Amino acid sequence: MTEPAFFSKEWAADVRDALAAGPSAAARGGKLPMYWDFFDRIRSAYPASWALGCRDRPAVLGEGPAYLVVQWGGGTVTRCQVLGPDEPLAAT
After folding, report:
1. Cβ–Cβ under 8 Å, residues 43 and 62
2. Any idea what the Cα angle at residue 78 is, between residues 11 and 42, rounded to 5°?
């Protein structure tokens, strides 16, 4: 199995899956349970979105900058996709 190209649709799907899965058991084991209780409570009510920009994409993915847009709602990722330079970017 090959890794998806950076800032491709497949890469965005992998990012979505990793964010939805949350921290690994090993990461959770490194902090007190009350920290993760707080983390889960905040995550369940987090309504914002993120955008991560990339100025130089591989030519096979298109010219110009691209943005990974991640929308959160109800404790999980509701949208995770790569947008090109001509697509509307709505992130809070």
Report:
1. no
2. 110
Report the range of poorest mean pLDDT among 8-12, 25-29, 43-47, 54-58: 54-58
For the record, the structure tokens of 67 come out as 């943005």
CA-angle at 90, arms to 89 and 91, nearest 5°: 115
pTM: 0.79
- Provide the token pair at 81: 């996709």
Helix (H, G, I), strand (E, B) or coil at 81: strand
**For residue 89, what are the contacts with CB-CB under 8 A and spacing of at least 6?**
51, 67, 69, 83
